[in-house]
Amino acid sequence: MREAKKRAAAGQKVYFSVNNFLPASMNNVYFEGVGHSRELHYLFNGILGLPMVPLVGDEAAAQKTYSDLFVTFAKTGIPSSGALTVPRLTSPSAIPNIQIYPSSYIQQDLWKDRTDFWDSIAATYGYDLPEQRKLF
């Protein structure tokens, strides 16, 4: 997330999406929540050894959001789906994003509690663990 903030500060266009929807058929006994790259299922069903999930109901709604975001970003450079347009990251203090669910929504500040925690640790000890560097 810090890299994204730096890229945005350098003038690059940065957008965030967070996949929080996990179809029941994709549950994993080894970890809770959505696994890395699970959003690829919505674009390319049945790849990477992922189970085939029928794209109906809630799964179809999430798939439509992902495909809309992908296509509108490719066409216009701005990801959107229906009435939702993903805000561009422009502030060094907040990360607007789209939360992917069957009823997706825009969130204004991604994981603020987590970034505040790591920033406070870095300020207290003079070492930024996520970036692995001394601050002073």
Provide the descriptors you would attach to this structure in a database record.
single chain, 136 residues, alpha+beta, three-stranded mixed sheet, two-stranded antiparallel ribbon, 4 helices, Carboxylesterase type B domain-containing protein
Description:
The chain is an alpha+beta fold and 136 residues long. The chain has one domain (2-110). Helices cover 33% and strands 13% of the residues. It has helices at 2-9, 40-43, 58-76, 112-125; strands at residues 17-19, 80-81, 84-85, 97-100, 105-107, 127-128, 133-134. The chain has a 3-stranded mixed sheet, with helices on one face. It has a two-stranded antiparallel sheet with strand order 2-3. The chain has a two-stranded antiparallel sheet with strand order 6-7. It is globular and about 55 Å long. The two termini are 22 Å apart. The model has no long low-confidence stretch (mean pLDDT 88).
